[in-house]
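Progress narrative, work stream C.
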Amino acid sequence: MLANLHYNTQVQTDVSQGLIALDKQAKCHVRTACSQLICVLLFLASTIGIVSVQPLASMSYTAVSMQEVLAAPAEQLFVSLAVGSFCLSWLFWFWDLKYDSLASKYEQLYQQHTELIKVSAPLTELSAHYHHLMSLASHLIITSNVVVLAYAAGIVIYHLQP
């Protein structure tokens, strides 16, 4: 009887540690998705800044050298912000790819220990927190994708104008 109790306690500890590890990875997933969204929004804002700066906006489709664009500090700032935020958003996207396997790891753990997770209040709370973080990360990724699609649509509409 005592050995069975020790076994159940050990299993609960192992499941708890597994859920805590998944929860930590889900927090990193949220941070990465949020960072990517911030970079995409910064890229959008810097592009609007580039278009709104008078010398760059008046160039339209004429040939301009890079030295002319980078001659003024405002242009330098907006161009470097656009390039930097674009590169960082891709970097965060690549970092975010490693969290694609979190859902399958959780499903495997949940299927193996469904009854234990449902019965134990701390395990249920850890499971709910994990779901909350993954939902938040999904919302951030969807928002980032919508911003990128809206940005691409804006470019297409801008170039289709007479």
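Work stream C, second folded protein:
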Amino acid sequence: MAEEEPKRAEPEGPPAPENPPPPAVAVAEEDHTVDEKKKEEEKEKEREKEEEGKGQNDNKDVSGEDQKCVSPVAKEKAAPAIVPKIVDPAVEKNSEVAVDRDAVLARVETEKRLALIKAWEESEKTKADNKAYKRLSAVEVWENSKKATVEAELRKIEEKLEKKRAEYTEKIKNKLVEVHKLAEERRATVEANRQEEFLKVEETAAKFRASGYSPRKLFACFSG
């Protein structure tokens, strides 16, 4: 009978893996697991921060007594763990060099743009100066031409006036000569008449002396 009883199967241990992972892979898996745990913890902290921020916004109007009732555990949870950020000096130096290079390039571009603007400004001013100089020269030529024309007309008028003046002067001189001639003739006539009258008077006086008569007109003047 004892032989007929079935033998109990002894518990066998876990089967040994045929190809156990190398230690490097195991360490990598452990690091990955640790990183995932850290990420989950950080996410949990961020969620707690967001919830705490929402709670602070909702509880702005709560009185001082309600604020005192907040558990210190929540405050401790609210304080995030400050993890110092390790910066590689080489990376920081490279970033500073890149920033400096960008600033230098920007400054060079700005100076180039300002130089182009300055050159354009000088060129436009030179063009404006040349245009104004040409216009001023044209105005000066026009002025000189008009002055010459007016002066020529003035000379012609002066010549005409001088000619007319000479003619009028000659006419006046001729008139003066004629007047003087007429005056001399009249003077000569008056003088001749005077001489004739003197002769007549002398002849009449001689007759009166010879005849012994007296002139009547003379005594008539002295009569009553």
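Residues 49 and 78 are 6 Å apart (CA to CA). No further action is required on this item.
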